[in-house]
Amino acid sequence: MKGAIIGDIVGSVYEFHNRRAKDFPLFSPESRFTDDTVMTLAVAIGMIKAHSTDSDLIEALSESMHDYGNRYPGRGYGGRFRNWLRASDPRPYNSWGNGAPMRCSSAGWIAATPAKAFELGMYTAAPTHNHPDAMKAAGVTAMLIWYARQGKSKEWLKSLAEKWYALPELDDIRDEYSFDVSCEGTMPVALSAFFESQDFEDAIRNAVSIGGDSDTIAAIAGSIAEAYYGVPDELWQQAMEYLSEELRHNVIEFFSYINHGNESIDGTDSNIPASSTESGEKSCNNCQLRKSGNCPQLSNELCSDYRAIPFISKEEKKNWPEHGDATAFRLGEKRD
Ligand SMILES: [Mg+2]
């Protein structure tokens, strides 16, 4: 959440003026928040509204995104998304764009289990980006955030990410990487920006240094880096200067919601029955997205993504937080 917002604001001035090096000013008078920040917060607020009122999640997310997008126009939305914002009955349009993983981070903070983080990540994509590539990207990002918050090592997280994406060495591709708004073209570099980093700020610098869609690459890398390292307070204070009063309040609202004893969304792995989890055969008919009819694009391909979620032992589950806990991992804590 905070990491996505910082990444977006820092990257905003480099999206159309790429800086293929790591020495650049993080903030400047031209920096601004863009669609990545607006949609990250629209999703977070939609998530807690649906959760607190027990209403349909995809509907609540769709309404919140529509509302925020229309109240914060001109923030760099893509053409098809602008059409979606103008529609009176907005429907998903099968986008495979990187707008899905850039806005999903709250799913990794509110979910009670990694499988639920993956599923909620896909839900955050569903109102517009219901293409399997986009739903996978949001699911993987949310799950990595979830595991990073639990203190998993970078090697462990990397081996998990490699089940879905081939990760490049940034130095090998920096000169040739070109603007690519697809999830398949964005996720590998955003993930490498995090995995090659030394600290939170370094992840943001790595992300911008690769060029291309800088604000979104930095938003995705920043959202995972936040969960892994924590966000240095001075960077967050600077970023907040660029936000509207409402958006600043939304961040506080989200973290206070998950920090004050509100049960996180669905504390069970109900989407994956225990028997099939153990055998490794997960039927797509068990998925909540399919059951609710909200995922017309759900395919065998996506179901095989579910199979890559690691098997979790009962012993490991004992250590999971009982409810959403934004402080599950603290800055500087030792990792396994
Ligand atoms: Mg943007």
Structural features, described:
The relative contact order is 0.17. The protein is built from 19 helices and no strands. With about 325 residues, the protein is mostly helical. Helix 2 runs antiparallel to helix 3 (about 55-70). The chain is globular, with a radius of gyration of 18 Å. Magnesium ion binds near residues 35, 76, 215 and 216.
Q: Which CATH first-tier class would you pick?
A: Mainly Alpha
CATH architectural designation: Orthogonal Bundle
The count of strands amounts to 0
| Broad structural category | mainly alpha
Query: Can you list the ligands bound to this structure?
Result: magnesium ion
Q: What is the number of independent domains?
A: 1
Q: If helices are DSSP runs of H or I spanning 4 or more residues, what is the number of helices?
A: 19
* Rg computed from alpha carbons, rounded to a whole number of angstroms: 18 Å
Instruction: Indicate the percent of residues in helices.
Output: 55-70%
* Percentage of residues in strands: under 5%
Q: What would the principal axes of the Cα set say about the shape?
A: globular
Terminal CA distance reads 24 Å
Secondary-structure element order, N to C: HHHHHHHHHHHHHHHHHHH
The CATH homology group name = ADP-ribosylation/Crystallin J1
The CATH topology is given as ADP-ribosylglycohydrolase fold
